[in-house]
UniProtKB/TrEMBL annotation:
It comes from the Bacteria. Modulates RecA activity. This is Regulatory protein RecX. The keyword Cytoplasm applies. Keywords: Cytoplasm. Pfam families: RecX_HTH1, RecX_HTH2, RecX_HTH3. Residues 103-142 form the RecX third three-helical domain. Residues 58-96 form the RecX second three-helical domain.
């Protein structure tokens, strides 16, 4: 069996530009995608350096856009931090961008809570909502005050 080395139609820089023309990527995501296309480590390194030098790729910009996009989907700060870590963003950058994000996490938690709240408000519904809000990445502080309201009086 002969050794088959895949030859790429485009240079690593061109492929990277193609990817970035569609959406922002973190550095780690780009490295993984270039690796999948079997570019050499040297080609990958040069492509990433060129992209960052020309400000085509920035983990800060990616992080800001990701936080804005996912918070509009009703995702809280804890889950955002976890998702960004998986995308290779450094802890200090995540903390900085979450701090600078123009998102009122309490207001967002309230909106998500109200949208999902069941009509029948009993202990089982409260437990379900608690789990739901935690799974969305909100901390207890963001929504615990909403649990104490007796919604059955308002119906």
């Amino acid at each position: 069996m002969s050794e088959y080395k895949k030859t790429n139609k485009y240079t690593a820089v061109n492929y990277l530009l193609y990817l970035l023309s569609k959406r922002d990527y973190s550095e780690q995501e780009l490295r993984r995608k270039l690796n999948q296309k079997e570019y050499t480590d040297e080609e990958i390194e040069q492509a990433i350096e060129k992209a960052q030098a020309n400000n085509w790729q920035s983990d800060e910009r990616f992080c800001t856009a990701f936080i804005r996009y996912r918070s509009l989907q009703g995702i809280g700060p804890k889950r955002l931090k976890q998702e960004l870590k998986l995308k290779g963003i450094k802890d200090w950058l995540i903390s900085q961008e979450l701090e600078n994000a123009e998102v009122d996490w309490f207001e967002l938690a309230e909106q998500v809570f109200e949208k999902k709240r069941p009509m029948q408000w009993d202990i089982k519904a409260k437990q379900k909502m608690w789990r739901f809000m935690l799974s969305r990445g909100f901390s207890n502080d963001h929504f615990s005050h909403l649990m104490d309201i007796d919604y059955n009086d308002y119906e």
